[in-house]
Write a structure and sequence with these properties.
With about 375 residues, the chain is an all-alpha fold. Helices cover about 80% and strands about 0% of the residues.
Length: about 375
């Protein structure tokens, strides 16, 4: 009895090993199913995600290049703002204004030089005749001043500084009323007046020299400004060509950036559409989507495979009518069991077992072929990208 129990136990263990092999085969078979379900329900397609990543990198690089070109254009315009073509009309207006100012300064310098010459001649006359009669000393400068005043009035109005100054000087040179008593004191006073007048002339001459020097220096600065403006106008054509080149390069970079941005947008749209089922006549489009979990899908696939294996084991156990435990035989026959003899299959039973094994192998192979065929079909249609 003990030996029969051991034989039955070994056969039971052998059956368990076979069932373990079957479970392993089902687990391996469930892997393609899990992968297929995962790739079909995955929101972000692998190839689309890779394209989106590449597009994002290209867009970033294009944006940086466009920003660098824009900064270069800003720096160029800041460095050559006065030489740009749009500044040409303003530069022309500045040159015209400076030329007009230069001409006025030249006229003023010429007038000041003439007036200075007049004062110099009057001073020389006073130095040559310091003790002459007052009327004789005054008549020559007075006539000269009046003649010069007439010349200035022909060119300028009464508000001109030179006209006002000559009018004041003529009033000072006119003879004073009434005459002093004759004698020596009159001659001394006349000599003193002549010296004071000569000193006043020298002061006026110095003032004119200062005015002429200031206007001459101002004209030199005006000439430099005109030369600089003319130089800017001459280089405007060169700056226009360089600026056009910068603008053209910026336009090329911007066009490339726009294309890459559009490509990125299309890839993003494809990401949102990949893995989602297309529903015809859908009343609304879901605004939020989910991302499938690979681990959950594979776990569900493994659980389904284990459940299928358990169902097959239970069905095979119910279909097997043989006894493996001696106590089951006693309970079934209601008779004491003396010994257990190992079942020796006949030729017919061997053929039946072989046919049954072949049928199970064909069924499993057919299931595997179906899974692999579906996987290959999904890959060929683009639903799955490896």
């Amino acid at each position: 009895m003990g030996q029969a129990s051991n034989i039955a136990l070994r056969k039971y263990i052998d059956i368990l090993h076979r069932k373990k092999y079957l479970l392993a085969w089902l687990l391996l078979l469930s892997l393609p199913i899990g992968l297929t379900v995962y790739l079909q329900t995955e929101k972000i397609h692998p190839a689309v995600a890779r394209i989106a990543t590449d597009s994002e990198d290209e867009v970033t690089a294009a944006k940086e290049a466009m920003d660098r070109q824009d900064q270069a254009m800003r720096d160029y315009k800041r460095a050559h703002s006065d030489e740009m073509p749009d500044q040409r009309p303003e530069n022309v207006q500045k040159i015209v204004a400076l030329q007009e100012r230069y001409r006025k300064n030249e006229d003023a310098i010429l007038t000041a030089q003439k007036t200075k010459t007049l004062w110099q001649e009057q001073a020389k006359a006073l130095r040559r005749a310091p003790s002459a009669d007052e009327s004789a000393a005054r008549i020559d400068p007075l006539e000269r001043a009046r003649n010069h005043l007439r010349e200035l009035r022909q060119k300028y109005t009464e508000n001109h500084p030179e006209v006002k100054r000559l009018v004041a000087e003529i009033k000072q040179l006119e003879p004073a009323p009434p005459d002093a008593p004759a004698g020596e004191p009159l001659k001394v006073m006349n000599a003193a007046t002549a010296r004071q007048t000569a000193m006043r002339y020298e002061t006026q001459i110095e003032n004119y020299n200062m005015q002429i020097g200031m206007m001459t220096k101002e004209n030199e600065g005006i000439i430099k400004q005109i030369e600089q403006l003319q130089k800017w106008m001459d280089t405007a054509s060169v700056r226009e060509a360089e600026w056009s080149s910068l603008v053209r390069d910026y336009a090329v970079l911007k066009e490339r950036y726009d294309k890459l941005a559009e490509k990125k947008f299309e890839a993003h749209q494809q990401q949102t559409q990949t893995g989602q089922s297309k529903i015809e006549n859908s009343p609304s489009v879901p605004e939020t989507s989910f991302k499938s979990d690979f681990h959950k899908i594979m776990g569900v696939s493994v659980l389904l495979a284990v459940a299928l294996c358990a169902v097959l084991v239970i069905l095979s156990a119910f279909s097997d009518q043989s006894f493996r435990i001696p106590a089951d035989i006693e309970n079934f026959l209601q008779l004491p069991v003396v010994s257990v003899v190992v079942s020796i299959p006949t030729v017919r039973e061997k053929k039946r077992a072989s046919i049954f094994f072949l049928v199970k192998a064909l069924i499993l192979s057919f299931a595997g072929m179906l899974v692999l065929g579906y996987f290959a079909w999904a890959w060929s249609t683009g639903k799955i990208v490896i």
